[in-house]
Amino acid sequence: MEMFAVLLLLAFSCLAALLNCAYVKYGRLYALGSRFPGPPALPLIGNALIFLGIESDEFVRRCAGLARDYGNRIRFWLGPQLNILLHDWRDVEVLLNSNKLTVKSDQYRVLSCWMHDGILLSRGRKYQQRRKLVLPTFHFKMLEEFLPCFQEHTAILMAQIRAKCANGKPFEFLPLLGLCMLDTICDTAMGVQIHSQRNADCEYVKALRSLTEILHLRMFDIKYYFRFIFRWTSKAAEAKRALRIMEDFAEKVILQRRKELMHAPLAQQSLPEEDQLIGMKRKRNFLDILLNSSIDGKPLSNTDIREEVNVFMFAGHDTLSSALMFFFYCIFTNKDCERKCYEEICSAFGSDGNVIEMKRERLNQLHYVELCIKETLRMYPPAPLIGRKAVEEVTINENIIPAGANIGFSPYIFGRKSEVYAEPNTFKPSRFDMRTRANSTEPQPCILTSFSAGPRSCVGQKYAMLQLKVVIVNVLLNFQMEYVGDVMQEPMLSSEVTLGTKEPLMFIARARGTEIVR
């Protein structure tokens, strides 16, 4: 009997200790989180039902509805997880530029199966090391070397569009853009050509599509969000198979390239680091830079390299094809903007459509095209959500954010706010023209958040801008297109890993100087 009493007392003591730990951990989180407006939360599950089983097109509308109903600072709970959405430009500015808010939010954890500790998800000293490591890839000299690769794969895209011109039927542009971007990314990241534009059913492409779809489900469908639930679904096994295919492919490429570099001529190895690879038969790529890099005097392991290559593939594939799709939608539904872009491109490259050699200096002359790109990214940002995690208590404009909270904002919702952008639903590239903005009545400041900002800004934004311009130059020099949908009705958006549309955007294309055949 005495032993039972002792055990009972011990059990109550353990329970009290656990409850105390929970109170310490969640008490202040709940107290501070409750200061923010938001929808009523249910015990245990919080506001999870808001996002339960929703379609991809519904996520954007739900977030916009929360912003409309509860203002610029909103809280919602996913179980015990506190999430705060900010859409006041002053708050967003602090969020993106704070050195205390550099850790990615919990929503990004679903990507860890693929990215692991790559630059997208790493934190602290490791993030600083990785960022310093990959920055040389986006030096202007390296970007100059990428241009022939951009043009090579874009030339195949031009042939694909010409085939669509022949029958005069409406076609979906996004799949063509996606495969072109995938070919380009594989080439610049790993130095290999997978020829997905000619063979969209190759094993690597199918694995990438499968994994991307599953990651979308995990990020935006609460049924798959929590790992302890996801691991028991059929999607977990499917993701595992896709990952194995992609990682085996990357590992094979890394081993082969490492072997080639080991047998490179000694004279080549004695060249200055910045020019060390120029004399090789193969053109430089992201993988070569990583294989020739070290951290704290130690070369990177194959695992380290694979993580960064995976990030490069993820960040540069769907995002660029999404940006291009919406750019062409905006341009071909705003004919005056199309005309100005075409005239500027002709001024820089000529009008015969035969862009034999891309030069960065010429691409830099495309000022109006760049304004149109920025305006497209404002209206249709590829990343539907950007998030950080407060690892310590922080204050944002007198609002205390408790440690453990996820803080984020939707670039799409932010880009449609009239207090930041006048006439936010109007495609108006001039709003980003700094030469005329000083005398503008546009609200200040005019912030482009698509590439994020501050200490975790996108390291590849110069790469992205050049790649976008190369495709745009080729398409506009060679083709005119007509959007098949209702130009007066904005397409219904869907929020996957990148922003898309519920229904495909369809176009009819014709070669410049010919008529559209219907």
Distance between the termini: 92 Å
Measured on Cα atoms, how large is the radius of gyration? 25 Å
Q: What gross morphology would you assign?
A: globular
Q: Which percent range describes the beta-strand content?
A: 5-15%
The class by helix and strand makeup works out as alpha+beta
What does this structure look like?
The chain is α+β, with helices and mostly antiparallel strands. The protein has one domain: Cytochrome P450 (Cytochrome p450, Orthogonal Bundle), CATH 1.10.630. The chain is built from 20 helices and 14 strands. The chain has helices at residues 2-33, 56-70, 89-97, 112-115, 124-134, 140-167, 174-190, 203-220, 222-225, 227-230, 234-262, 266-269, 286-291, 302-332, 335-349, 360-363, 367-379, 411-415, 434-437, 461-478; strands at 73-78, 81-86, 103-104, 171-172, 294-295, 298-299, 386-389, 394-396, 399-401, 406-409, 479-483, 493-495, 499-501, 506-511. The strands form five sheets. Strands 1-2-10-7-3 form a five-stranded mixed β-sheet. β12 (493-495) and β13 form a beta hairpin. It is globular and about 90 Å long. The N and C termini lie far apart (92 Å). 41% of the residues are buried.
Give me a quick take on this structure.
With about 525 residues, the chain is of the alpha+beta class. Helices cover about 50% and strands about 10% of the residues.
